[in-house]
Specification:
The protein contains 7 helices and no strands. By secondary structure, it is mainly alpha-helical.
Length: 175
């Protein structure tokens, strides 16, 4: 039993930076990320005997963490969709079509991603960071492919606006 705990501790130490990063990308704040991180590690340790040594162990672990984050967000989504339907408001965002390569520090980008509404953040992360196609996302989340595309587009628009606002502030401060 002591060897099992020692192995778990080593595994935790080795993988926690990458796996915690996943939690931060999917969740709105550090508190939610901490909860998912803890719950997902429990799931990982409970299911560790199900790892079939096909593909990397880290990849297998990442899937557990992504799935746990998605499950938490799905539970919140049920309430969110009702609220959106009741609100009937226009969520469109006006964005300049000019494209410029801009460097945004990783911590700032993470903050902007965390500020996205849950459904936008979920689609953005699955598409951009996890490499899922819109078809795969639609199957995984039980939504239409068009909904996935639309939510990704809106997420990118919101992020673009936030980055443009930051650039505008920097230009005014420097100029």
């Amino acid at each position: 039993m002591d060897k099992n705990r020692e192995g778990q501790r080593e595994l935790y130490t080795l993988l926690s930076p990458v796996l915690y990063g996943i939690c931060l990308k999917y969740m709105k704040n550090k508190t939610e990320a901490d909860d998912v991180f803890q719950d997902a590690f429990i799931i990982l340790f409970q299911k560790i005997d199900q790892y079939k040594f096909k593909g990397s162990f880290e990849g297998w672990a990442k899937r557990i963490f992504v799935n746990e984050a998605l499950e938490v967000l799905r539970k919140k989504q049920r309430q969110l969709y009702i609220a959106i339907e009741d609100a009937n408001e226009d969520n469109s965002v006006e964005v300049s079509t000019n494209t410029v390569d801009v460097y945004v520090p990783q911590d700032r980008l993470l903050k902007y991603i965390q500020q996205l509404p849950d459904n936008y953040r979920m689609i953005f992360n699955l598409f951009v960071f996890e490499g899922y196609s819109h078809k795969e996302i639609s199957t995984k989340l039980n939504i239409a492919i068009g909904t996935s595309k639309s939510l990704l587009s809106r997420a990118k628009s919101i992020l673009r606006v936030k980055i443009n606002e930051e650039l505008s502030k920097k230009c005014h401060e420097e100029g």
